[in-house]
Amino acid sequence: GMLLFNLPTLIYKTRLSIRSILYLFFSNDKKWRKPQDPLQVFGPLLRGKKGKLEQKTIYFVRHGESTWNDTFNKGKHRTTLAFILGWIPGLIKAIAYEIYLVLSGKMDR
Question: CA-CA distance, 12 to 108, in Å (whole number)?
Fold first, then answer.
């Protein structure tokens, strides 16, 4: 019953997981080079007609907390002892929630 609830999403997530794991093991992204100075790349594009840099507004959007954040980050809301004692139950909860999301066909978008 539950596996067939949203079969296309289940297939999509399964394929995405397999591709992610394969990429993790077989990609060449193991070493990072120092990036080029952004001003050299974008400077000519950002300069106005008079050669001055134009002012730009950048909005940063942050995602909310997840069960994985709660599992692996101690945070300020609990002591180190509470974090250590709750790590295994938190890990089980996070894995169970991920399995629920996959089997129910729900998307995290």
Answer: 13
CA distance 40 to 53: 13
- State pLDDT tens for residues 1-10: 454 567 787 7
Whose structure tokens read 């609830």? 5
Q: Is residue 39's pLDDT more than 70?
A: yes
Give Cα 57 distance to the centre of its chain: 24
CA–CA–CA angle 42, 45, 46 (5° rounding)? 85
Pick from 68, 22, 71: nearest CA to 14? 22
Of 78, 77, 79, 72, the closest CA to residue 94 belongs to 72
Hunting for tokens 């000519």 — which residue is that? 44
Which has more confidence, 78 or 108?
A: 78
Q: Distance between CA atoms of 82 and 12, rounded to whole angstroms?
A: 37
Query: What are the tens digits of pLDDT across the range 66-76?
Result: 777 778 888 88
